[in-house]
Amino acid sequence: MAFWWPLLVLALAYALCRFLLMLIPPNVPSIEVDTSDVVDDGGQARDNSFIYIPPRGRTQQADRKVQCYEPATMKYLGYFPALTTAEVEERVAQARKAQKIWAKSSFKQRRQFLRILLKYIIDHQELICEISSRDTGKTMVDASLGEIMTTCEKITWLLSEGEQWLKPEYRSSGRSMIHKRSKVEFYPLGVLGAIVSWNYPFHNIFNPMLAAVFSGNSIVIKVSEHASWSGCFYFRIIQAALTAVGAPENLVDVITGFAETGEALVSTVDKIIFVGSPGVGKMIMSKASETLIPVTLELGGKDAFIVCEDVDVSHVAQVAVRAALQSSGQNCAGAERFYVHKDIYSSFVTQVSKIVKSVTAGPPLAGKYDMGAICVQEHSERLQNLLNDALDKGANIVIRGSFGNLGEDAVDQFFPPTVIENVNHTMKLMQEEAFGPIIPIMKFSTDEEAVQLANDSNYGLGCAVFSGSQKRAKQIASQIHCGVAAVNDFASNYMCQSLPFGGVKHSGFGRFAGVEGLRACCLVKSVVEDRWWPFIKTKIPKPIQYPVAENGFEFQESLVEALYGLNIWDRLRALVNVLKFLSDQHPSGIKRSD
């Protein structure tokens, strides 16, 4: 007891000191970001705004302007230039110069950058969410869940664990290299490129940027033409935080444009990260093959949502509706296929329908609505075509949600939440990514059938499995071919930023987040050095020095058996032979002591 008592006192004192240090707020400076041209004076849009009628076809690209408008109201927001190939090359060249300086920065400086961002985000949640809402049509609550919380969680994880995962990692050296020290070192790749989608305009910029900058890279991000207005404002936040820590200018850049701009970015960076559709992802891969740069693709999803008969139906129904209507009905990382056990099928459909009946869609900043607008022009027409195909093949609409007070010019940008039953896999709705607020519910009889249905898809991003038995849910989830699985929950994986995020099949490859995502921003270098230098140095054994001795191969045979033989006595006998070979002054041939 006398021995342990001082150790216990020291441990308690250490814990107390850590607790007291936590009470001392860190010294994090505030930053000022110009919001004069984006903040409304209380209305949905400023007085000088007007209704925008998007041109059909490729008119925007021909004009070399990215036109921006609020999808929920069609109010005009302005335009940004569509950068040419030469302009993109210049931006990347500037980022490359900045990266050479930033690569030498300390983790202390990088952490301060993260803290400044975190402070600004927490203090300006409403502003950030409102900007996202205006540009994409999502509600403030959906923006908070998908934009603010995920980004804050990523920053917090990097602050807590980022440095330790970028430090050299020591590995075992094996039997033949026991006198060596082996490690893996992580160096910045250089200039990363990211082409991101519109569905989470804030997080889709910050997600690759945070990992890139923390690992010593620079990054150039092409934002979607459907979310350029918000993306360029969010860029100001990053610029202000970088300036506050003395980072070099042009370390992070945000560019706008169309296909030409994206192609130019792929051709000039050291790695490309793409978030978007499988079709464009294939074109990105093809372009990246010209310079043989690494590619991370986060593509479409058709996530399965499996409900066993032993669940709390009312609870899971609420989760299901949230999963389907996530992010204002844009279905960003949402579930698109619902498989429910036949014993509770009717009650589950009834519960889901009751919830959907209460859901109202409308301009998210004009009233209290549960769901916002469809962001992309003409997408509601595609959703209706998918629905019509299912109806033609025998499906039934159970219920549709309602609309709020829509403007005359914005009706096409809204699609009511829709519950549909009697679906099957011959329907396009169950095979193609919908990206919309449709809840198709199909019944299954056995767990094996549920797994088979879930795997019958070209996509493999994620799944969610619900059962009163956690063991059963885990067993089902383990058999589904996808990159992300949630057991008795939905989308909780992405809030665990220590975990990698990504899919398989047409959902892409490579990973964001976690150790895997952070190290994917690095040149991974294997390093071997002498463990006891200069006392023990590597020397080539005499029998295999040039000119190789006659018994060189016999020496190698004995050496291999001494190192890797399965029987200890055989290894010892082989070791004796090795020593004989090494001590022989006139190497020719030594009879093995077999």
TrEMBL record:
Keyword Oxidoreductase set for record: yes
Keywords: Oxidoreductase, Signal
Gene Ontology molecular-function annotations: aldehyde dehydrogenase (NAD+) activity
Homology family: Belongs to the aldehyde dehydrogenase family.
NADP in keyword set: no
Transmembrane segments: none
Native source species: Eucalyptus grandis (Flooded gum)
Protein known as: Aldehyde dehydrogenase domain-containing protein
Listed PROSITE patterns: ALDEHYDE_DEHYDR_CYS, ALDEHYDE_DEHYDR_GLU
Record-linked Pfam families: Aldedh
Catalytic residue list: E298
Signal peptide limits: 1-17
Domain Aldehyde dehydrogenase: 61-527
CDD domains associated with the record: ALDH_F15-22 (cd07098)
InterPro entries, alphabetized: Ald_DH/histidinol_DH, Ald_DH_C, Ald_DH_CS_CYS, Ald_DH_CS_GLU, Ald_DH_N, Aldehyde_DH_dom
